[in-house]
Amino acid sequence: MADRRLASAQITAAIIALAAVTPASAQQAPAAAGTQQAPAAAGTQQAPAAGGAVTPLDAVTTTATRTRAISGDVAAPVTVIGREEIERRDARSVIDLIQDIPGIESSGAPRTTALQPIIRGLGDERVVLRTDGARNNFNAGHRGRTFVDPDLLRQVEVLRGPASTLYGSGALGGAISLRTIEVEDILRPGAAFGGTLGAGWQSQGSGPRGSLALGARAGDFTLLGAVAGFTNNNFTDGADNTIPFTGDNATSLLGKLGWNPGHHRFQISALRFRDDHQIPISANTATTTGITDRDTVSENLSFRWSYEDPANPLFNPQVVLYRTHVDLTEQRLTGARVRDRTELTTVGIDAQNTSRFGLGPTRHALTFGTEIYRDEQEGRANGVPRAQFPSAEQSITAFFIQDEIGLGNFTLTPGVRLDRFEQESPDGRNDRDSERASPRVSLAWQVTPWLQPYVSYAEGFRAPSLTELYVGGQHFPGNSFVPNPNLRPEVSRNKEVGANLRFSDVFQGGDRLRIRVAAFRNDVDDFIEQTVLRTTTVSANVAEARIEGVEAEAQYDAGLWYAGLGAAALKGDNRVTDQPLASIPAHRVTLSAGYRFLDHGVVVGGRITATAEQDRAPNVAGVAQQTSGYGLLDLHAAWTPNFAPNVRLSLAIDNVFDHAYRRANWNSDPSPPFYDVGRNIRGALRVSF
């Protein structure tokens, strides 16, 4: 293990040595190397719009195929949230941004840093999370995963369904790519220096927030520095109950140095997040016991290189070398006054090349590459090893290849990835290694200019986590964890059929309508489930689970006004016990609309969310058997004065009618003493200079 740590330290040292205006709906999306591409010239980053109207489904994505594509044209359900929507939401967490996407839910009680994404009923380590191309593998029992202030994000991409062909272990449910702001988001065209200054406040928790971003350009060099943060006291729910231990004091720092000689792009970036707060150990449950003073620190350091020459379509490499470190320090304030420390360090490299060429009547975009990374985790209690988060390591080596083959109006996209895992136990007696191939194939047919049906088959997998394999120690008084080094990887097989539709000049000249519908069935074998028995807690494989459902997205933009609809209906079952799965979200429909007073720079809009009753739950003690349906209304407005186009004022009201509701995945029996967050009035001011 010492040799491994030395190797990790050498890679980290190498990284350090290497380190010696927003568009309306479709963002200019530079991509971090490894899964993303460098900023291209304006006009190459978004679809041409009919009459200028562009919907969010016209935004550029690289997450669905690792190549640039219009999100509404790919044979995969991918949703892009651009900078304008991020600013409008004035969100305190990534989860706030994505939870309206069809098939997406957030797990846990409303504590900001403890929330985790659930995609199509699969959460925790079954969703791959990447920030600027760097993996974020941290997952430690109820403690959250998304550690970045949304004010530093320019784009969020969510790919639903198994994605292991491109992203390896953990992508059973899907993948989320976070992209931080670039100098191009800060500087005005032709400017050498500029910045943005933001301030805001919300009624929930009497919480102020602020941000400052500065950018500079000199020749081929660019420099960006940004800070964002917020603080708040405890929230209240729709019944005027205090939601305990929901206060935060969070700060994010971002720095980037870029060099763009010719067709090359080099970039060094560093991102740091810190939140100091009092919170339960099991923070994403409704518990109000086991309180700790937690200091959450997440650090990402990366070096990226890409090359793109239109005259050389065979050579388009992208490389990211990164180190991600998460460190949670917890001083327990109740019970035994233990000081816990939970750390995970991931060091890795992700490299790929895309070659575009023709062979006879076929067109090809051949993408191939490798991903190598190493996780080292360590848990300590009062300075000694903590068996509940065992000190262990794993190394992963992967190779992948995918070919987007065009023949007439058909696009066939086969791909496969091979992952090899080596996992090392604390005592060296239960080390293990395994391999897994993850294939995917899709076929899209452009029947007419407005209709593109598609079918796809994809496999995903998740290797057992180090904690699941080697955990030990006390779970709670009278109950102990039992390790299971014989766990098998989870494997999912997803069948999907869908259609992308595009229309122009529907109700008036220049408008644009985009629609995507999909139906899927995802069969998961060897699902890893944790079971709490009378005196022990153990993880074991469940033979088979099935999740199936339908999803729909529709987006319309006519310039003066716009509208969107998202809907999902999912069902999940344990096919061994014939019991429903606990993580499946209730059926939900979201309708949004807005109007732009172009002569005055004013935009007003709203959103209605209708969620059905969820009465399908496993017959397990502590799990609620029914969660009531609910409806929410949110309103928002923004003003960019014609006489001051560098100023933006915004106002929003969430949960206008102060409705008391709970999401099914954190409801329990007996019911928690509080509901989700009640009415929240938000205001913000942003000035660019």
TrEMBL record:
Q: Which SUPFAM superfamilies match?
A: Porins (SSF56935)
Task: List each copy of the TonB-dependent receptor-like beta-barrel domain by range.
Answer: 233-656
Q: How does it sit in the membrane?
A: Multi-pass membrane protein
Renumbered to this chain, region (Disordered) spans: 418-438
Keyword check for Signal, yes or no: yes
Q: Which family does it belong to?
A: Belongs to the TonB-dependent receptor family.
Q: What protein am I looking at?
A: TonB-dependent hemoglobin/transferrin/lactoferrin family receptor
Q: What species is this protein from?
A: Falsiroseomonas frigidaquae
The organism's taxonomic lineage, starting at the top: Bacteria, Pseudomonadati, Pseudomonadota, Alphaproteobacteria, Acetobacterales
